[in-house]
Design a protein that fits this description.
Blueprint (H helix, E strand, L loop, with lengths): L1 E4 L3 E6 L2 E6 L12 H9 L4 H8 L4 E2 H7 L5 H13 L3 E6 L5 E6 L1 H5 L1 H32 L5
Antiparallel strand pairs: 1-2, 2-3, 4-6, 5-6
């Protein structure tokens, strides 16, 4: 009998057949070997999805990224870019000039993350619209229930 762990369950092989065994009905996070955990760790962290978003369409210079990501410090941007480069998501290219020009762009792996980031952006947009609608509805309800409102 061999055991392999997947995201939220363990796979047991008995007499050549794999049987999934649920480890716990309420596991708080995926097993460390889970592909979901691997991907979320890759794009986790404040600013990381934003950096991926901004370098998705074309190579960007550090100063362009710093300007586009309002509020990020140079230290944090450098740290995130180095991590993304180590993880194989971002390619750092130094062009010999005076001073040298450094650009960042997505690798093939990084480009595979683009639909994920796009989906997050789409859901975020819908969440913002929903929140705005709820606020507007609450304001209408408050104004119609006030003595001077109607």
């Amino acid at each position: 009998m061999t055991l392999r762990r997947h995201c939220y369950h363990q796979v047991t092989t008995v007499h050549g057949s794999e049987i999934a065994v649920v480890i716990g009905a309420r596991m708080k996070e995926p097993h460390p070997d889970c592909p979901l955990g691997e991907c979320t760790m890759l794009i986790s962290g404040t600013w990381t999805p934003n950096i991926i978003w901004y370098v998705a369409d074309e190579p960007r210079r550090f100063s362009d990224l710093k300007r586009a990501l309002t509020g990020i410090s140079s230290k944090v941007l450098t740290t995130r870019l180095r991590k993304l480069e180590r993880d194989g998501v971002v390619l750092r290219t130094v062009k010999p000039s005076s001073p040298p020009t450094v650009t960042y762009e997505l690798t093939e792996l990084g480009r595979e993350l683009r639909p994920v980031i796009d989906a997050i952006v789409d859901v975020g947009r819908r969440l913002k619209e929903s929140k705005l609608k709820r606020l507007e509805d609450a304001q209408i309800q408050l104004s119609s229930s006030s003595p001077t409102g109607g």
